[in-house]
TrEMBL record, chains A, B:
InterPro entries: AAA+_ATPase, ABC_transporter-like_ATP-bd, ABC_transporter-like_CS, ABC_transpr_MalK-like, ABC_transpr_MalK/UgpC-like, Mo/tungstate-bd_C_term_dom, NA-bd_OB-fold, OB_MalK-like. Keywords: ATP-binding, Nucleotide-binding, Transport. Residues 4-234 form the ABC transporter domain. Gene3D superfamilies: 2.40.50.100, Nucleic acid-binding proteins, P-loop containing nucleotide triphosphate hydrolases. One of its GO terms (cellular component) is ATP-binding cassette (ABC) transporter complex, substrate-binding subunit-containing. The keyword Nucleotide-binding applies. PANTHER family: BLL2173 PROTEIN, MALTODEXTRIN IMPORT ATP-BINDING PROTEIN MSMX. PROSITE patterns: ABC_TRANSPORTER_1 (PS00211), ABC_TRANSPORTER_2 (PS50893). This is Carbohydrate ABC transporter ATP-binding protein (CUT1 family). The keyword Chloroplast does not apply. SMART domains: AAA (SM00382). GO terms for molecular function: ABC-type transporter activity; ATP binding; ATP hydrolysis activity. Belongs to the ABC transporter superfamily.
Automatic annotation (TrEMBL), chain C:
The lineage of its organism: Bacteria, Pseudomonadati, Pseudomonadota, Alphaproteobacteria, Rhodobacterales. This is Carbohydrate ABC transporter membrane protein 1 (CUT1 family). Residues 71-283 form the ABC transmembrane type-1 domain. It comes from the Bacteria. One of its GO terms (cellular component) is plasma membrane.
From TrEMBL, chain D:
It comes from Yoonia maricola. Residues 68-259 form the ABC transmembrane type-1 domain. This is Carbohydrate ABC transporter membrane protein 2 (CUT1 family). Signal peptide: none annotated. InterPro entries: MetI-like, MetI-like_sf. GO terms for cellular component: plasma membrane.
Amino acid sequence: MADVSITALDKTYGTFDVLHGVSFDVADGEFIALVGPSGCGKSTLLRMIAGLEDITGGSIAIGGRVMNDVAPKERDIAMVFQNYALYPHMTVAQNMGFSLRLHGAPKAKIAERVAKAADVLGLIDYLDRMPGQLSGGQRQRVAMGRAIVRQPQVFLFDEPLSNLDAALRVQMRAEIRNLHDRLGSTSIFVTHDQIEAMTMADRIAVLRDGCLEQVGRPLDIYDYPANAFVAGFIGSPAMNIVPAHAAEHHVTFGSDVRVPVNNSYTGPVQWGIRPEHFELVPAETPDAIAAVAQRVESTGSDEFVMTAVGDVRFDAQLANRPGVKQGDQIWLRPDPAKSHLFDVQSGVRLT
Amino acid sequence: MADVSITALDKTYGTFDVLHGVSFDVADGEFIALVGPSGCGKSTLLRMIAGLEDITGGSIAIGGRVMNDVAPKERDIAMVFQNYALYPHMTVAQNMGFSLRLHGAPKAKIAERVAKAADVLGLIDYLDRMPGQLSGGQRQRVAMGRAIVRQPQVFLFDEPLSNLDAALRVQMRAEIRNLHDRLGSTSIFVTHDQIEAMTMADRIAVLRDGCLEQVGRPLDIYDYPANAFVAGFIGSPAMNIVPAHAAEHHVTFGSDVRVPVNNSYTGPVQWGIRPEHFELVPAETPDAIAAVAQRVESTGSDEFVMTAVGDVRFDAQLANRPGVKQGDQIWLRPDPAKSHLFDVQSGVRLT
Amino acid sequence: MGNLRPMGLERWWVLVFLAPTLVGLFVGAFGSIFASVGISFTDWDLLTPPTPAGFSNYAGLPDDRLFMRSLVNTLAFAGLYVPLTVAISLFVAIGLNRSIPGLSFFRVAFFLPTVSSPTAVGLLWTWIYAQDNGVLNNMITAMGGDPVRWLSRDVALYSVVIVNVWGAIGGGMIIFLAGLQAIPKDYYEVAALDGATAWQRLWFITLPALAPSMFFQMVLTTINAFQAFDYIYILTRTGNGNSTMPTLVFSIYRNGFRFFRMGDAAAQAVVLSAMIMVLTVIYFRLQKKWGGQP
Amino acid sequence: MKRDTAADMLAFALLLFGALCMIGPFIWMIATSLKPVAEQYDGRLIPITPTSENYPRLFEIIPMHLLLWNSFKIAAIATFGQLLTCSMAGFIFAVVRFPFRNVIFVILLVTLMVPGQVTAIPQFVIFKFLGLYGTQAPLYLPAFLGGAFGTFLMRQYFLTIPIELAEAARIDGASLARIFFTIYLPLAKPALAAFAIFAFMFSWNDLFNALIYLPSNLEKTTLTVGLALFQTQYSGQWPLMMAASLISVAPIIIVFFLAQRHFISGISMSGLK
Amino acid sequence: ETEISFALWGSPQEAAVWASIAEAFEAAHPDITVNIEVSDWDGYWEKLRVQVAGGTPPDVFAMDAPLYPDWQLRNVLLDLQPYIDADPSVLDGVFPVTLEAYQTDTGLFGVPRDFQTIVLYYNKDMFDAAGVDYPDDSWTWDDFRTAAAALTLDKDGDGTTDQWGAWAEVYDMEPFWGPVIWSHGGEVVDPASGQTLINSPEAMAGFEFIQQVWLEDQSMPTEEQLSQYGWDGLLSGIAAMGFSGHWSVPEYAEAGLNFDVAPVPMGPAGRVTGVNSAGFVISSDTEAPDAAWEFVKYAISEEGQSQLANIGLAVPILEDVAQSDAYLEQPVQINHALFVEALEYAHMKPVFRGYEEWSGAVGDSLNLAWTGEESLADALDEAVALGDDALARNN
Ligand SMILES: Nc1ncnc2c1ncn2[C@@H]1O[C@H](COP(=O)(O)OP(=O)(O)OP(=O)(O)O)[C@@H](O)[C@H]1O
Ligand SMILES: Nc1ncnc2c1ncn2[C@@H]1O[C@H](COP(=O)(O)OP(=O)(O)OP(=O)(O)O)[C@@H](O)[C@H]1O
Ligand SMILES: O=P(O)(O)OC[C@H](O)CO
Ligand SMILES: [Mg+2]
Ligand SMILES: [Mg+2]
């Protein structure tokens, strides 16, 4: 049993509060993605779970046992560090096999597990290199390898794929998730990559400035963000959030733009709509917003159009590269079912 | 004038060849993205341009002057290191202002430029911190800041955004491109992020195993990849590439799947189709492929379906989350205009 | 090793930075190395012009009873002194790199013997080792034992090693303390997660990361061992400036500067240097094997 | 990280024992220096009639203050010279690649192995030729010509500083001199502190050169020479000799005390990812 | 205006005396300035070697007679014979035995400055306390042995000796074992034939006597014991008798000892003591040989010697001065005349090339006998073997 239970966790560096009363539980065998803006405390939280950082307040339990005062090595945890922290004096193979060696595993077994991990990670040719002779991505993979040969109860990953190219990432994503499922271990995975979080995790925890904003299943968070921050943070490109006035199944904003929404709330609101929930429609289509394309970026598959309606800026992501040009006048129809309303003050979702 | 001209560049570490005869030119004021799999030599190339790495063969010229033997500080270059390389004993502000200080800039000017960069980078609150007290993303931003306060002739960026969250990345992307345009400097930008490469760069250079595979404008590379490697590498999720037989505007593969293509080549080929160029169609639609969904991942906006047709695996990316479930029998129609054919042996594009 | 290749103006800086050392090397030390080798092939009394002697100075060494005795003494001394000094000072440094109460006191305590000139403390040790009323023998007789003749021919080696180690721990300690400071904390964190015990951290992380300091300390201690003079002289000297436990430098010093046989002295110095160099090369190898930077 | 308190306590106990062994002789030394001559052979640790008279007496017999000042002046200048030139050379050896680097470094190392007396005579001739015989210059000038020990020490330390820092600074526009002074030196504080102590100590304890170069009159010479003269003369008077020894050791202890807090750098090398 | 440098070993006090001599000299020779350099014994030779090898020795420097041949043979000393030939009266009245050491086949490269004969010192208080009669000229070595045994005491009864009958330096032949061997009819060394002679039956008899006093009776402290007490057993108050030259007088007096001197005891071959002299030499490289000679001449003149006699460290080389009040009526009142009388039965300390190395080899080996590590015979064999090696190396 290796469920992780975090209760009212506080962390302070000197006078600087990093975490404020963070609580959540990770079930045994669950895969949790931890996301949040840079500097919000993700690495700190992982390091506290690992036992590398003192706990200012609250508690951390693993498998039901409070770990606040337990040495890291007693916790049966493997961690991939954001800065890799490879041992510079050991080869790739030695780095990866180190913990098994510490646990007295027979040489053959170490070699076998290292070889297997190296194979998955595309490091077979580099096993005898020193870390100093590796590229950034290769180092990151070694750091990864060091964790996965361990097969511990709990995995902690701190942005383990950030230096890898797309193809490798996709492959690694699947490998990590497979490994997790095979070992039945519990994983906490810090990432800034939406896709990683959405596709790999059973649940996502969103952290902001040391506070937990929402924990939930990926699509729940995507579809029903608990507040404007989560709405804006999850999904890329980010949701458009516009101050507006809601009344009777529609919102109005700007000089007098009016769009339908599936919500009967009345009063001042923040209206949210994701860029991909606009449809490019012919001129004057009902409920469409007239906008001017200010900048167009193509991602290959899609077109990302930055527009403005009066003072209000919108981004829209249009499938199949319709060929919008900068300066074009276009009509965008928001999907009323995909609109979100948030409280003006608190940002909390209004339903 | 700061065009960068790279001619027949070779690099060897001991007996290990990292770069083989790489040649390309970067025009003055151009923004080039350098992409390629992990370990292909991107960082090495940047470091050679910066003057940090010996040139085994070939030459590098900046502004028409051969730089092979010119000290880095004479090259008027700023670089963001993949591993940051912040000065551990200097505060964030000192790190960022260091090069201006070296160039004898007045204090007020240093402070002003640092403040401005810190503002853009969201580091205002951290100016007095030491690097050791920063999160990974914050460190990366400091590394970034150190380069941008310089306003040099040439910028070299080595994966400068890899540790940032989506929102910040989008913002930084725009900021970097703006800065580049405003200063009129030349930029070479290593990234593993497709979107970054596609949206920021004037041209993309694709490197594989130390060889340059293709240099071209982003959409050209996306739409007309020069070979199967580039096709597979650019675009995420990656293009499906299937051994097939082409004849008369169609290809056949597997037991007897047959799909139309806009190409009259005849013979054995590799047929390529991007996941986003499938359409989910009702059963038995002409030209559609019958496939079984083996795994479905949702990225929020899209659905990513891994399917198989007999032994052949396909990935499809379907907009608007149609709600495919694992095990469903689905029909996918590839867009014939978006099909690519590559030579079986050489992988070269066939037109 | 850093491989920054200087370009343009940087080349001048390299020269400027090395200039003092190079001048020192050429003016002083360098000349004397070659001079020593050269002199070893001559007979020279320092005052009248040298006469060529071929290999005779070397050939005579095996028959020189005093030289052979001092060679044996030196090897025995080094064999004990080097490992003891390195090991103890390393452990002390590791101990003092922790946050324990009274750190400054400990540092000073361990360093005291190093700063004190042998002439000042050596006398003290003759008292500690004294046969009658010596501190050690007083303790032994108080416990009913027989007084030991600490500085007699048989025991002197050990007594002298103890004093020399005592005097060298502090020096090693500060080298290691400085080296320990340069080890990033990350490594210990990863190792802790990997399940390393304190000993394993020491063995697998601290020691390898300390390789540059260790290499330095090994080389230096070896050189010191082969050149140890002061304490040995003070503790074991006999009436005419000789010693009951003469070492190689003793022999070199006496031949060259007492008896003006520079040729013999130089030959012995060359033999001494050669031995140290062989050991240095061995350390180099060992260290490379360990994966560190030389 | 969590401290391991049991290990800390064990370490403390071991260190305490070790420290007592280390300072034992000094306690004896202090005790003896506080004894009247009549009690010097009584074998007791605690003086029966403690007296501090040996100290003032010492200053009467020899001009201690002048000797101390001379030694201090020479040691301070020499230390500065060593710190500067050895760390410069150590930096180049550790960071820069240049032709014959390893050869020169090995030759430098070999100089460590040559007994000091071998170099004494050529050196003497040079200083005599320069007209510096009889002045203090020969005691500190060589310190400005580098030295194998310090260069080796500093090089070993500089090797542990990630080379990327030098690279980043080079691109930032720093000359090698700037890299050295603004990046490497500040980061090498622990090693510099250690080396400073060594350099000071070497100079302070140097008897041979002081003997050879300085006039022997007690106003001009160093403490070591003064003490050597004094020791032959008062060899049976332990309390006096111990007082003299203590005074000669005290300044280095003070220097050590001042330097030792710099052993802890206060900067974790975390500029790198 | 000429400047000459004069180097010597000794204490600062001794330097002060020399400074006043130099002052008087300068008063008489206004055109010459003398710079005095004093070092302790070890430091003196160390410095001298570097200076001489570096080609810049002091103009005038002190010399110990046994070491003189080594220096002389290296051609670094100025031949003084021409000066003496020019003014033979300079050496008038000098004890001939002191000159002997400096005379060579090729000339005279040094002149004595003072001399030292070895006598028996004794602590009157200890004799009084033990009720033993003071030594006198009737004493034989056996009397010495008996008295020494009687004076060896364990005063506090803790089982260890705290007062010994006598002490002696074991290492160098000069104060003790040389006179013992000679007075037993033995010889020490024959430099001409390159032979060490201390294993002759006569010499053996002398050594056996020493061993009896030392090891059997334990009436003398070992070297280790001495080192603990600062070497000089009389000075540190742990021994009742000792053998030394005149140089000990000021020290003993200053330490407040109640002491006097007696002749060394007689042996089977009569009474023999040793004599040794310190001298002046002039560097052959000196730029001012005349001025240097003037100074040397002054220092061995009656005036200079009288002043020197007054420090009480040594015996003047001029018979007149040695008989004068300047020497005999020193502030410390002991039998000063005895040191001069001893010349009659004094054997010159051997002076030959390689003396230093030879004496080291012999001393080290003999030491093994005194510590009991080896039998006397074995130690002597080793001493002779190593001593002969050393002689061979130097010829
Ligand atoms: N000092 C070295 N010695 C030997 N090989 C090296 C050294 N440095 C780098 N390499 C190798 O050179 C190749 C190119 O490295 P480089 O750092 O340029 O890759 P990269 O394209 O930047 O990769 P990444 O995206 O992972 O950072 C890699 O395979 C790496 O292992
Ligand atoms: N040693 C320290 N002293 C003071 N503040 C610190 C220290 N370490 C981290 N911080 C601060 O704590 C906050 C949280 O840091 P943490 O590393 O947990 O962020 P993160 O969420 O992992 O960010 P990133 O995605 O950028 O890595 C940051 O604002 C950082 O500046
Ligand atoms: O992490 P520490 O402080 O226990 O030190 C690690 C040592 O190398 C183990 O003794
Ligand atoms: Mg982090
Ligand atoms: Mg790279």
